[in-house]
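User: My collaborator sent over this chain with a note saying "see what the structure looks like." That's all I know about it. Can you take a look?
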Amino acid sequence: MRRNNQTLLPQNRLLSLDALRGLDMFLLVGLTGIFRALPKLSDNAVNNWLANQFVHPEWQGFTVYDLIFPMFIFIVGVAMPFSFSNRLEKEGGKKELFRHVLLRTVILTVLGVVLWQAPGGPHPTWGFYSVLYRIGFSYFFAAVIMMNTEVRGQAYWAFGLLIGYWLLMRFVPVPGYGMGDFSQEGNLAAYVREHVAHYISPNFQYVFGLTLITSVSNALFGVLAGHWLMSQRPGTEKAKGLLVGGVVFILVALLAHLDFPINKKLGSPSFTLLTCGVTTVLLSLFYWVIDVKGYRKWAFFFVVVGVNPITIYVLDFLINFNRLGNVFVGGVDFGDANALMTAIAAAAIAWLFLYYLYRQRIFLKI
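Assistant: Without extra context I'll predict from the sequence alone. Here is the result:
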């Protein structure tokens, strides 16, 4: 008897969240390579603009590529009220939940460090820091705040950390540069990082970076969205609320940009608000279409990726999917489309592997 793909997951699961997570991760492991290959197909302004959307700006500015990991952290936050409520009902309650949070944080940190290591030592630029460490850091502190405060308190913490970081970066003077310098050399985060490197070790300069503060707010805003989705309000009302909230966040981010520019590397409050706003808008649309209106089949492609995000992230480090793609298409001359066809083949291989895991009910969870 043929299995229905949708029945492989619990019926009460928030499928829109899996789909959005899948879109986020497929941007990283699939669409990035495809869009970066477009200028080789045709070197024109449109293709170059699209390719540049999948490269981080040198300093200030914003691209689609900047959205990937803030969106992931936000989604982690959204899932927390759902998962925490289930765990708190089990034996051990809050104490066991904290042990789970701590263990998950340690695993994410260690896994991130292992993946980032250069042969024979720490990463030459980032030391013992990794994106997984940032995810674990934000998850841990958001979890501690969530377990010890009510929803209003969580909102105070989310905005308070952003405002506190803003005040630090704006009003604490940096020797030789003064106050409110947001340049690469003169900002407070760079000054603190240099002193950590000097007094502790260069390998820990990003581990103790000030920019981690706003990532906690990122996760907490996701937590607030999760509480909203768990409420007893009608689905359409919840979708509208998310949409309005996301638009407001984007507008506030653009206003904040006038004082503290949108900057991923500094984790500026304007950047955090912008990424949370864009993610919230996308979540509202996914939630309304998938969970409220019931149009689920189109989302299956992304759900396959979204239920195994850590798996594909780790595999992207361990396996050269472009090389595998070239095995299948490298023998054919596609002319200017060679790079694009290789990227498409690589993305297809990655997805098909995740589809196999999905069909076998293999889901790597941390």
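A starting point for your reply to your collaborator: Residues 5-359 form one domain.
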